[in-house]
Amino acid sequence: MRVLGVDPGLTRCGIGVVDGERGRRARCVEVGVVRTPAETELPRRLQVVGEEVERWLDRHRPEVVAVERVFSQHNVSTVMGTAQVSGVVALLAAQRDVPVAFHTPSEVKAAISGSGRADKKQVAAMVTKILGLDTPPKPADAADALALAVCHVWRGPMLARIAEAQTRAEALAKNHRNRLQEASRAARRSGEKPSKGHRR
Fold it and tell me: What is its EC number (predicted)?
């Protein structure tokens, strides 16, 4: 499985590509960071990030794009920028029919280090060890992108099976409800008395 991990951000957007399968050693294909100046207008910053993400999608042709799920923080402007970049990445992937998976920071930390409260330094150290890198990826955004990709390599198949099972369970429950409703209607029809006009 080839996964493109994206740690969304306007000032720094981490991007990393990982090859691997659950239970096997993962391999870093490429990692980098897209930077845009804070003084540049928002549409142009999104364009720069989008163009670079497009190049990575076309160059590496990932099977899945893993993006960090945005959570509210104290800095609203930062959250807005992160959400906008996430939207651009999701759109570009969808245009190429590439599935997009969103993982929360705690999910990624737990998958990589075993603790949902691990700090960035711990995550970078574990990513370095897992991927067999000589040095930790820098800046932290690059390490986070690789962590997202590794997280999906390890958790993606399991999450897909859970989602599939949930879909089947919902379909069975719906069919069961439909049968109960039909049985109830049939019981009401069979219990109806003929009107007075039809009595003899």
Answer: 3.1.21.10
pLDDT per position as a tens digit, 20-38: 987 778 999 999 999 999 9
| pTM of the predicted model as reported, rounded to 2 decimal places | 0.77
Active-site annotation holder among 7, 19, 107, 144:
7
Mention every residue, 6+ apart, whose C-beta is less than 8 A from residue 9. Answer: 81, 82, 85, 141
Q: How confident is the model at residue 163 (pLDDT cuts 50, 70, 90)?
A: very low
68 is in an annotated binding site: yes
In the set 19, 107, 141, 144, the catalytic residue is 141
CA angle 108, 71, 170 (to 5 degrees): 75
Fold of the CATH domain 2-158 = Nucleotidyltransferase; domain 5 (3.30.420)
Task: Determine whether the annotation assigns residue 97 to a binding site.
Answer: no
Integer Cα distance of 32 and 13 in angstroms: 9
Q: For residues 171 and 45, give the distance between their C-alpha atoms in angstroms, rounded to a whole number.
A: 44
